[in-house]
Amino acid sequence: MAQADDSDDGMDEFMEKFKTQKYKNAFTESNWEEEFDKVPMFMKSAPEQIDPVKHPELACIQSIIHDDDRPPEEQAKSLKDEGNEYFKEKNYKKAIVAYTAGLKKNCSDSDLNAILYTNRAATHFHLGNMRSALNDATAAKKLKPDHIKAIIRGAQCCMELRNYAVALQWCDEGLRILPTEKKLQELRATADKQKRAADRDARKAKAKEKKERNERAVLLAAIKERGIRLLKPEQPQRRGSDSEDDGADVSAAAMAELHLDGLSTQEATGAQVYLDEQGVLHWPVLFLYPEYRQTDFISAFCENSSFIDHLVVMFGEELPPWDTDRKYYPQNLQLFFEDHEKGHVYEVDLEKSLLSILQHPGCSVKAGTPSFIVLVKESPFCKQFLSGKKVQRLK
């Protein structure tokens, strides 16, 4: 509001001054017809010879009408000047239009065309169009190899595009032409520093990738050695006449699924199967409670631990809030896993280790996460859930 008041006060002051001081260039009763006749819109007839000093407006209109009659070099220069004015006003889009129109004149002055390309490169640069700016700087340098401004702009574009090696090439080329150019010296120092950092980061990333690849190979070998079958989540493994022999054969593609689906993804849970320093596998394990549509997730279930060890902790002193009937005590529970191919259901001995269950021919690990169904023994829901299913107890 204060700014608006200041503006209003300034206008009032101007109007008061306007009332007391006569406008010096105003038409008079004696010369208004003569003055009006100088305005192109009100001229009764145009003069045979147009003097730009006496008739600047008419000269401007004439130059526009007969612009195509001028040599291409003059037209391109006018458009370059027009683009420069737009550039100074930060009206970059109109500046690009003007420079482009100048280049379309196809004049024979290679230096002028190089300037048009360089200026358009600068405009694209300010708009963030780095690829277009680099293309224009390259075109300018091709027309005028010693054009330092084009070389500086090309180096700047490469820096913005993080192509430090090419930026160094631009700087070195410019410094061969003008070794004392401070801007190129500064750009080269920065490009060299950034390139060294980028190369270092690339080496670290490559070493990390190699390490992870080796760790993955060791992990895969450990799983294969144990005879544990992996299934891709979208494609259950097919079994032929020699399925028992093929069960331990896990492809690299299947291994890649160990961290790519649902609760097995590292992004979702931060957990995936890993091999510790003692060569023991630790699995992310999912427990399903279909009666209440609930789940539990153990991020690192040691393969040598038994199921009862975990159930005692999970259903020990404090039962889950969804167990409204207070019946999920360890001694009341039964654990099952499904054979995804045959549709059989196997009851798990709670005293068994995770490894012994995963090694069973009917057990498979889908998406890197073993999953087990937890039911209350002899409950109505348990009987209903298992009805119609072929249940087998593991020996």
UniProtKB/TrEMBL annotation:
It comes from the Eukaryota. InterPro entries: Csn1/TTC4_wheel, TPR-like_helical_dom_sf, TPR_rpt. Residues 276-383 form the Cns1/TTC4 wheel domain. Keywords: Repeat, TPR repeat. The keyword Methyltransferase does not apply. GO terms for biological process: protein folding. GO terms for molecular function: Hsp70 protein binding; Hsp90 protein binding. Belongs to the TTC4 family. PANTHER family: TETRATRICOPEPTIDE REPEAT PROTEIN 4. This is Cns1/TTC4 wheel domain-containing protein. It comes from Pygocentrus nattereri (Red-bellied piranha).
